[in-house]
Amino acid sequence: MRQVKDNIATQKVKISCENIRKIFIQKGDQQVHVLENISLDVYENEFLVILGPGQSGKSTLLRIIAGLETPTEGKAFLDDKPIEGPGPDRGLVFQSYMLFAWRTVLGNVEMGPKLSGVPREERRRIAQHYIDLVGLTGFEKHYPHQLSGGMKQRVGIARAYANKPQVMLLDEPFGQLDAQTRLFMEKETERIWQTDKRTVIFVTNNIDEAIILGDRIVTMEGKLPGRMGMQVYNVDLDRPREPTDMEFLKLRHQITEASELVL
Amino acid sequence: MSTSTVANEIVQNVREKKEFSLLALIRNEYFLYVVSSVAFVAIWHWVAAEQILGKSLATPYAVIKELYRLTSTELAGQTLWGHIWASTQRILIGFILASLVGVPLGLFMALNRTANAIIKPVFDLFKPMPPIAWVSIAILWFGIGEASKVFIIVIGTFVPCLLNSYNGIRLIEPELYDVVRSLGGESRDEIFQVSFPAAFPAIFAGLQISLSIGWTCVLAAELVSARSGLGWIIVQGMKQTKPEMVIGGMLIIALVAWLSSEALAHLEKLLCPWKREIEGL
User: Fold this and answer.
1) How far is B109 from chain A (nearest CA, A)?
2) pLDDT by residue (tens digit) across B133-183?
3) Can you give the residue range of the structural domain that contains A2?
4) Within an 8 Å CB–CB cutoff, is residue B197 touching chain A?
């Protein structure tokens, strides 16, 4: 549980970011340095949490890995192949769910297989499997507007999973949920991940969520432009983790101290 | 009451029998609808019968009697049904023509920047022009026949068709396209799986606005020059100083316009059961 950098060197690297720099040009040619010299390895089947306050560039890093943004400098790799654009090997889950309002739960979940031309019967079977996995059995014919926030995000997770991605990218997926539903969804995420293991990159601003879920936690700070720091923490706690455990609190304290985060 | 738990959330099916109470009846909105409608007709009757506004207001009964008379009496060779159909036909032709051009054009403008840059300045010039301003030029160009009336309806209904289709696409959350792309979709999928279905309610709202504008346009056209239609009936009533005929015409227009918009609303419910509220359009 000490602060160690990359001590899991025996594992296979799935995603690799090399010296990534991202500058956005705002109105009036103002440059905003969002990411500065970011290097990061993510191992296969690892649950990696990127923790940081708003505006720290964590979502931008995730979007670069997703292939939805191009870094100004540096490159991101998936299995040593440079990431050039979005693809079905990386599944995305959004904070604002981004469900297809005009499709039922089943229609949403089967979208990925449908786009890759999986025959109807087969994609129904896949979709049903993941609907069951996220606990939405019986809601297949519901439309998103009939679901609560937590249920909507279950659909979002099932939809990403049903496309069988190698890497799951979750961008503050529970940011819009109330505290209780959020805690429950964290447990559910852990359960789903343990049932169907993938490499997961999970972005959050919530330190408890980070410690409950992460094998490793990467903290990002965006307060000093051009000096964005990254710290890596290994979380060697047994799952499921309880936020009231002594070890949990120690790590929480350590991260808070080191990163000057107001969390 | 039955309760079930799904995904850690409790679903309750509440079905309780309500007991009758006077207070609940007075607050019941359907009851209030009836009260307000009856009161309106009663006040109308009283004002007309007592001739408070002079002889220019007919009683509800006189209006109904006049409408009944018109269903069997021919005016300019047509009964009331013929005139209703004449107006409806003009609207349908104009409305369908306008939506067949306006909707695809709006979608195309929203999806193609070059097309947008070419069409938008011209469209913006014509957009604020009230369709009724076209009445005179339409008569000059197309004479007083059917063509000029249909032309005015096309001009009037075209604008909301195009605008709503255009905005419907423009207001789509860009992240929805990210979803399709990250699920392995191509640009074709972005258009067919996101753009079109997501814009559908906005397009439909545009059609509904168009239809009601269509009724305004057809009236304007018929008031100026026509030998048939509901607008023409109103003009006849005015010329013959028959307020019951004018009011009767107005009522029929309201009724037919309402029926047609209800039909469209019903069609929308059938076509998109997932409809969400669209604000700011």
Assistant:
1) 23
2) 888 889 899 988 889 999 999 999 999 999 999 999 999 999 999 999 999
3) 1-89+168-175+198-263
4) yes
